[in-house]
Amino acid sequence: MSNEAFNNAHVLDPAASQATQEQITGEITDIHEAYRQEVLAGKKAETQPRVDFAPYRSSLLRHPTKDLHHTDPETIELHSPAFGQRDVHVLESDLTIQHNGEPIGERIVVAGRVLDGDGRPVANQLIEIWQANAAGRYVHKRDQHPAPIDPNFTGVGRAITGPNGEYSFTTIKPAPYPWKNHHNAWRPAHIHFSLFGTDFTQRMITQMYFPGDPLFALDPIYQAITDQKARDALVATYDHNLTSHEWATGYNWDIVLTGSNRTWMENEEEEH
Ligand SMILES: [Fe+2]
Question: Active-site residue 35, yes or no?
Fold first, then answer.
């Protein structure tokens, strides 16, 4: 069966989104086992989520079916918008001070470094985050499940990495939330991260998770990454040194940009 026929078979079946968690988990287990066998047989380990991943039902009609169109970044970068530290205020990395009152929930600090594939720091990198509140609710019209909106929490922030690639956000620990991928589907608690590079053609989007989440095994988005080591890389570490007395708990999460040895800021400096 071709990919398209396979996808259509799932999506056009009105029962598809009514799949049970047991079905979804069973499919995840089978795909992971097949992957494990392939790696044992010598296949290279995967590092990225699969775009064509049947348990992730709601992505079946909208995931890319063709290879990415590769453009020449050297040319495009000359004409594309770039982002710099002068555009971002340092207080934008604190998601708990955007309104008149304190948001409800567990105050946390999420900090780490952005590194390239060789472990070198990526400085002056724009990082944007967005997330649900402590009740698992987004400030978004499409999120209508019965959990309260917090008038003191919008759930978006941004920061620019320092000279050693370091970043730090102060925020509220998000809760899991339901979605309509299948019956009784719940996302593990997560924070969305976007890294821009120097222009739109380099944008990378990922999610950070919290250690020990009981929903990991059930989540087809997290499990669309078939490799355990690659999945583990998305989970922050509780860091008591980042935790501050009577203020906030701390989580450490480093972001490693693989696939290129290029350190964006070095090239930008060369160009100017
Ligand atoms: Fe989300």
Answer: no
Q: What is the pTM of this model?
A: 0.84
Multiple choice CATH, 5-64+81-268, 2.40.33.20, 3.30.559.10, 3.40.640.10, 2.60.130.10: 2.60.130.10
* Structural domain spans, the chain: 5-64+81-268
Q: How far apart are CA 178 and CA 183, in angstroms?
A: 10
Q: What is the CA radius of gyration of the chain?
A: 20
Q: Can 231 be counted among the known catalytic residues?
A: no
pLDDT in tens, 172-208: 999 999 999 999 999 999 999 999 766 556 778 899 9
Cα of 1 from ligand 1 centre, angstroms: 32
Is 192 noted as a catalytic residue in this protein? yes
Phi, psi of 57 (to 5 degrees): -55, -45
